[in-house]
Amino acid sequence: MAAPRDWLGAVEEEISGRQGSSGVEVVFPSDPATPAPLCPHGPTLLFVKVNQGKEETRRFYACSACRDRKDCNFFQWEDEKLSEARLAAREAHNRRCQPPLSRTQCAERYLKFIELPLPQRKFCQRCQQLLLPDDWEKHREHRVVGDISVGQLRRPSLLLYPLENKKTNAQYLFAERTCHFLVDLLSTLGFTRVLCVGTPRLHELIRLKASGDQKSNIKSLLLDIDFRYSQFYMEDSFCHYNMFNHHFFDGKAALEVCRTFLQEDKGEGVIMVTDPPFGGLVEPLAVTFKKLIAMWKEGQSQDSSHKELPVFWIFPYFFESRIRQFFPSFCMLDYQVDYDNHALYKHGKTGRKQSPVRIFTNIPPNKIILPSEEGYRFCPLCQRYVSLENQHCEHCNSCTSKDGRKWNHCFLCKKCVKPSWTHCSMCGRCALPDHSCGAPKDGCFICGELDHKRSSCPKIAASRRVDKAVRKQKQRKSNKMKMEATKEQSMNHTSVTRRKKRRERAHQYLCS
Ligand code: SAH
Ligand code: ZN
Ligand code: ZN
Ligand code: ZN
Ligand code: ZN
């Protein structure tokens, strides 16, 4: 009989495997000599292809937001020089890819729309667009729904279909109970402003509550790359934004909206809540969040310089070490974040949905009460709320489960391990019973260790020095030959991208 499938383990592998296993990593030069070139989604990121034990290959720029080349095919070698003509063509392409309407025009359209009598308020499902009478003719053949009520306008996440492009922009919307839990929690904690980064449904629920009852009047600002949302909000409550490079599509005006929002009331009472796409790389996200935090900090007086901007970063539990690498003060809550349309869902033994998604926060966990009716309890020893299955281990002196299942203590490993693991004497550690002994998994590219990736390898500095020395030597040896090879290579690449470009001329902005 086959062993019971370790479902959470499979999810963990699937998602974390998408990060870095292709051998492509993002690099942030400490002193960038030149600004990154621009794609339609703002400044590109610098990537490097790494092979285990080999020297770094050539670095290149690619889109920060789209991991699927079908969505943005930008590619440029770091040391590639482009002709004036190609630069001009790129600029024209970037302009063509921008949304057809400015933020201000969208807001004006919205104001016109709500003035219309109910029978004239139409929405085109094909184009995902609110229609004004002048637009009707153009959408005559499309599926158009009418009588769009104020209630519907306030819940755009129900009106719009969730984007489903797995690689670039999969939208996983919070289930009602999670969304209500978050809104209630934010209000209990006394927040008055919420910066929603990639959380459109939370944004709308906050506003819905604020307009509904007097008790809650939390303000919310949504930053999201999904431009469709700009039809439903004025400029001060939505900015078209890319969270992988901190790019505001509407330039300085939008950046100022965000700055004003963060710095209002001397920065008191504001929290940032973010739920990025899980396939996204952690490091660029962390860099962006640090920029938003810095923006908030600018508005602080000197004597409160030790304070931190409160943050909820919603992400799968197995990114804990990655996140804490960038934000050591964050801890992971046991609360399982549920989604309406998440493919990564299975009914657990209890019939309850098991979600691998958690909240990472710098708010002290004893202040965050998790609902007992959903199976959470307070652990007085750990001073935090944990799930019922998460038992306090007296040897580790903590509630050790990370994934919501009961973990077991292994005396040989001197720590608690997943229930599906057993101790392997060959490997000298706990692992799945059917693991192949000694086989390296997707570990670090430099030293092969499993508990970290190349970018956080303690040996990285040394390996970089070696790389550099090797590179220099090679360069001296065959400078001329290399130059020629390079030329050829980049010409090959150019023709490939040209062909690709032709194929993808139909490229339209965000699946519109
Ligand atoms: N659970 C959230 C939605 C999370 S899905 C809710 O219910 O409110 C991820 C969100 O991030 C989507 O809204 C998506 O449009 C947005 N997003 C994806 N890539 C982005 C990027 N590069 N910059 C900004 N937002 C992005
Ligand atoms: Zn792009
Ligand atoms: Zn239409
Ligand atoms: Zn233990
Ligand atoms: Zn063990």
Q: What would your notes on this structure say?
A:
Strands 13-12-11-10-14-15-19-16 form an 8-stranded mixed β-sheet, with helices on both faces. A 4-stranded antiparallel β-sheet has the order 1-4-5-6, with no helix packed on it. It is globular. Helix 6 crosses helix 7. A hairpin with a 4-residue loop joins strand 22 and strand 23 (398-399). It has 12 helices and 27 strands. With 512 residues, the protein is of the alpha+beta class. Among the domains are: 22-97, no CATH class; 99-148, no CATH class; 167-388, Rossmann fold (3-Layer(aba) Sandwich), CATH 3.40.50. Bound molecules: S-adenosyl-L-homocysteine (SAH) and zinc ion (ZN) (4 copies). One zinc ion (ZN) binds at residues 39-41, 63, 65-66, 72, 74. Belongs to the ZCCHC4 family.
Structural class: alpha+beta
What does the main sheet amount to?
A: 8 strands, mixed
**Average of the residue pLDDT scores:** 83
Percentage of residues in DSSP E strands: 15-25%
Low-confidence stretches: 1-5, 346-352, 461-470, 480-512
Describe the strand arrangement of the main beta sheet, using strand numbers: 13-12-11-10-14-15-19-16
* Unique ligands: S-adenosyl-L-homocysteine, zinc ion
Calculate the terminal CA-CA distance, rounded to whole Å. 48 Å
Q: How many helix segments?
A: 12
Tell me the overall shape: globular
GO cellular component, one term: nucleolus
Biased composition (Basic residues): 471-480, 496-505
Protein name: rRNA N(6)-adenosine-methyltransferase ZCCHC4
GO molecular function, one term: zinc ion binding
